[in-house]
Amino acid sequence: MTEPVSDALLKLLGEWEGFDVERVETEAEGDDVFGAPAPRLVLMLRAKAGAPKRCSQCGAIVEKIHDVSERRVRDLPLGEWDTWLVFPRARLQCPRCGPTVEAVPWLDRYQRMTTRLAEKIARLAQVLPIKQVAAWFGVGWDTVKQIDQRALAQRLGAAEDHLDGLRRIAIDEFAICRGHQYATVVLDVDRKRVVWIARGRDQEALRGFLTALGPTRCAAVDAVAVDMWKPYAAELRVHYPQAALVYDLFHIVAKYALDVIDRVRVDETNRLAAAAGQGKVREARRVIKGARWLLLRNKANLKTRGERVRLRDLLRANRALFIVYVLKDDLKRLWQYRSPVAALRFWKAWRRRALRSRIPALRKFTAMLERHLDGILSHCRYPINSGVLEGCNNKIKALKRVAYGIATMPTSSSRFARRFPEFPDDPIRIAHKCPI
Ligand SMILES: [Zn+2]
Questions:
Q1: Centre of ligand 1 from the C-alpha of residue 160, in Å
Q2: Residue limits of the Transposase IS204/IS1001/IS1096/IS1165 helix-turn-helix domain (predicted)?
Q3: Per residue in 356-396, pLDDT tens?
Q4: CA nearest 47: which of 15, 88, 93?
Q5: Which of 15, 337, 342, 406 has a CA that sits 20 to 30 A from residue 289's CA?
Q6: What is the pLDDT at residue 35?
Q7: How far away, in angstroms, is 398 Cα from ligand 1 center?
């Protein structure tokens, strides 16, 4: 016996396990994303006769039904139709778990929609802006945002229970999708794992994490390592009044290279160029020009004799460059102290030398560090930094490799060098494929 066409078709389109389609209704609806009327299809489902009900917590078959209520959820559109399902969902009295609801395998756990619709939304949100995905499916912006967030966390192995017992965390950002997008990552420093990831690198990206964490778990956090230049600080102060903000060496030295060394190099080159006309000056200019990477490398890494000679010429050619180069190496020592008193003493000595230099960019940078001194000195008590990323799971490593891959493209190679001074000439080139 063959089935009626309509039944076979519904089975093909539906497969709502445990349920049959009882009847089909239509509803007039508002406009769709193109302004055309969007008709609604409402499928009324009923529980399959004799199908056992399972506890959604433990999966055991439960006989005792407490009551049944009607649920209405979204499904994938069928043809032109926005499709809704109306079905009875039983509340059970599980002998093991107490009062629970019945397991519905095709129902998304958190959203009022089917799993397959949530999956489709998550897939589209990888390549389209949230606003467009929301408009296309006629669902709320917040819903798409949540689904995307959850899918992202799943792909990177950040589970919900990872949010329990956080004491020391680090927050950082990464370029993804060839630099078109950024993601904010929160790491559990003690357990060396990713606990949160969200698209974007603004306060809003962090707010989702803070909301999910909640006030009680927020209050247990002792220290947060963060990039001093990111807009996170204000947000963090509100949620973690008790926690120490720790500004790490990595971001500060990278910023020093950008704001001080680059600035001085440009200024000095211009100064020499202005006095051009003599061969010696032109020679000095040539030495300074293009030698930036020599300044950024640690002395110990300068292997060849040629490199050493070039650096010597360069430093001789210019006093200001020499000062900012030496002070950069010295500044790193600030992060070696474990005693705040000793660190403060070191800082005062460093500051004196920096201010005496009379180099405007260096003085400005020093004043800025002074304003953030609390966060720099708290590194003594909480020696954490984004270096913990190195010890983190493989997925974050994959993420970092993508960041390297992006940065090795010609347009942003200097940015790469600044951000990853420890990898000046051996970047890992990988296929430009977005992992998340
Ligand atoms: Zn149960």
A1: 21
A2: 102-151
A3: 988 999 999 999 999 889 888 988 888 876 555 544 444 55
A4: 88
A5: 406
A6: 61
A7: 38
